[in-house]
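Input sequence (275 aa), recorded before submission:
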Amino acid sequence: MTQGDAGIPTSDPRKYEMEVAVFDRMTTEHRRILLPFEEYVAVYRKMGLSPWLASQPADAPVLEIGCWDGLHLFNLSRITGRPGVGIDISAFSLEAAAAEARRNGLPVTFAAMDALRTAFPDGTFRTIFFFNALHHFFSQGFAEVLTEVRRILHPQGRLYLGEVSLLYPYNVLAFVGARVIKKFVRVDCIERNFTDNEMGLWPGFVRRHARHVGLEVVVGSVGFFSYVTRHPTPPDDKTPPLFRAVARTCALLGKVGPESWKHDCLHMALERRKE
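Predicted structure, token format:
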């Protein structure tokens, strides 16, 4: 088995290239489905991010793993003036992010780097963001990437994790359904949106694997309503009517079901376990 440039283990270089193509396309569409800036600020506040950053040295950079187009690093830089470093597997994403950083004069830099084998020394970062990227390591590399995150996290640092929740009905149907369908038939919409290595996550799964590699949750899962919840019809005109119907149905289920059904994302803050 070989390692792709992004840290996604694969025995098939062609499959790896297809996964990178998915991430490139996602970056192109990402800006179409963003929440208002104020809502991201509210999420950061729920996670306890503001007091945490206020307690850290002003020049201590934030690292974001799987940064795509740099959204969260730009948000934090605008809020705090803090420098940031973003790494990703998609050169297309990094070029777009770097151009925006230059355009807006933000102290954020980007690098193409293997998430399983970063070039950073031990304990480099006091704050690490890992948003909507860990689930891409579900089938292969999950424990390994968490181990690498722990290595580069400062002994008194904190990891902020944000992920698609497998407790949300739409995500269950989307991720589980996509994996089943891909085994039997090629569907363009699925091929363009799902890699073979990804799956939504749930709190117990994350806690168990994090604890195994020496990380512990200090802020429990904090759900929030993302774009899919507020606007259940996907913005892609190529999305088949069946997918749109499923999205609408799941949004209705979320209104009458348990609290976990009302949030399609989960967020946690983790620290290194005390030796």
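Checked by second reader. Confidence is low (pLDDT under 50) at residues 1-14, 227-235.
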